[in-house]
Design goal:
Belongs to the group II decarboxylase family. By secondary structure, the protein is of the alpha/beta class. The protein is built from 11 helices and 13 strands. It starts with a helix and ends in a 17-residue tail after the last helix. The structure holds pyridoxal-5'-phosphate.
């Protein structure tokens, strides 16, 4: 160590270069700094971030146990794509998606195919790409035009589907949600389907509200359409959240590979798969639904290993964490964790329903997520954005936002209950909501509404 570094070490922490001056923002600093100084600057700046455990806007895991953290620490240097260097991690990835294929009732998981991804967005895009490629191949074989593929889905889809359509030149056909049809449910579906429809997206756990779309009813509507028109339209289930809830909490609900029309399902390992971000999974019911020309070969143990991904390098640690969670919790453990989250969601939704000001949109009995609105005519002095801001002052992030088409005039507020929001914390939150609602109700004049904005984007 040079003399000047030794001297730097002696200077009190907050009087050191970098701490005593403003840290460099947009240009890499000219000089080195001590590791302790660099770390302290980052610790201090991120201290101003919200507390992730109090963020009830996100679906993403914010808590794992200490053993999981050790698994993570021991493996965060592993690159998932390096299958030759890390054959065991590659084998564990395979174990995981096969476990998931079985969980989703694949008739014969040895005939299924799947992969891990960075999250549901990438998994959904791979599902969409398989639809598009299969449709193109069939059309070309029949000598038909392939210029105008379209994908049919609810107006309440997550933004990843809009991205898919934008990036991969597919026309999005949105079926608007309404008060009568709160989700895509098969109603009017024939108006949106034609020979250029590559598939329909059904969501298990709509991002805006947490509701399940009735996949079996959508499949039945598509059966009827096929009987009338001959169009054989497959379903991709976006189970970003519900894919890891329904098997445990609603095992009798038929939404998965029990339905032949469901070709593929995706989920986020980092949501109710209970793993830190970023991890997703996509599985095809049978490998025939994943066109082979979308698969690339990488070298693996001197041989070839099929890979399917939009990116190349990415961390392998999350895949190991998923395997850890499957081994650690087993089916019964997952069921218990998800049930606990649902109990907390129902406790909170029941408490909010009791307040005069609000009306529930749903109660958290699908995934442990629910939304509510202000009762019509309750007040013109405040709205849900004001309640969002009051709760933010207490550290809670409980987002308010407008619903999608055809309900854009409706503002709702939503709570996502995740593993880690204990009943004890939920009681605190409910008290906060009661206190802040009473405060707002006691106002004698209207709150300003300028510059109000949603705290969450879909
Ligand atoms: C229904 C749905 N699909 C897809 C996504 C995107 O998931 P990810 O953040 O894992 O990419 C989300 C995220 O909230 C979602 O709720």
């Amino acid at each position: 160590m040079s003399t000047s570094q030794a001297d730097d070490n002696l200077i009190p922490q907050f009087a050191r270069r970098g701490e005593a001056t403003r840290a460099s923002r947009h240009v890499i600093p000219q000089q080195e700094s001590l590791p302790g100084t660099a770390k302290q600057i980052i610790d201090d700046e991120t201290m101003l971030d919200g507390n992730s455990r109090l963020n009830l806007a996100t679906f993403v895991s914010t808590w794992m146990d200490d053993d999981a953290k050790q698994v993570y620490e021991a493996s965060f240097d592993k690159n998932m794509i390096d299958k030759d260097e890390y054959p065991q991690t590659a084998a564990i990835e395979d174990n995981c998606w096969r476990m998931i294929a079985n969980l989703w009732n694949a008739p014969d998981a040895s005939q299924s195919i799947g992969t891990s991804t960075i999250g549901s967005s990438e998994a959904c895009m791979l599902g969409g790409l398989a639809f598009k490629r299969r449709w193109q191949q069939a059309r070309r074989a029949a000598g038909k035009d392939t210029a105008k593929p379209n994908l049919v889905m609810s107006s309440a889809v997550q933004v990843c589907w809009e991205k898919f359509c934008n990036y991969f030149d597919v026309e999005p056909r949105f079926v608007p949600i309404t008060e009568e049809h709160k989700t895509l449910d098969g109603y009017d579906l024939e108006k949106y389907i034609d020979e250029n429809t590559i598939g329909v997206v059904a969501i298990m756990g709509v991002t805006y509200t947490g509701m399940y779309e009735p996949v079996a009813a959508i499949a039945k509507a598509l059966d009827d359409i096929q009987a009338k028109t001959g169009f054989d339209v497959p379903i991709h289930v976006d189970g970003a959240s519900g894919g890891m809830i329904a098997p445990f909490l609603q095992p009798d609900l038929v939404w998965d590979f029990r339905l032949e029309r469901v070709h593929s399902i995706s989920t986020s390992g980092h949501k109710y798969g209970l793993v830190f971000p970023g991890l997703g999974w996509v599985v095809w019911r049978e490998s025939q639904w994943l066109p082979e020309d979308l698969i690339f070969q990488v070298s693996y143990l001197g041989g070839e290993m099929p890979t399917l991904a939009l990116n190349f390098s990415r961390p392998g640690a999350q895949v190991l964490l998923q395997y850890y969670m499957f081994l650690r919790l087993g089916f019964e453990g997952y069921r218990a964790v998800q049930q606990e989250s649902q109990d907390v969601a129902k406790f909170l939704s029941a408490g909010i329903a009791k307040l005069d000001a609000f009306e529930l949109w749903n109660d958290g009995s699908d995934i442990p997520v629910f939304a509510w609105r202000l009762k019509e005519g309750h007040t013109s002095n405040w709205n849900l954005y004001h309640l969002q801001d009051r709760l933010r002052m207490k550290g809670w992030l409980v987002p308010a936002y407008p619903m999608p088409d055809d309900l854009t005039d409706l503002t709702v507020q939503r709570i996502v209950v995740r593993n880690g929001l204990s009943m004890d914390l939920a009681e605190e939150l409910l008290e906060g909501i009661e206190t802040e609602t009473a405060y707002l109700d006691a106002l004698e004049s209207p709150m300003p509404v300028e510059a109000q904005r949603p705290a969450f984007h879909h």
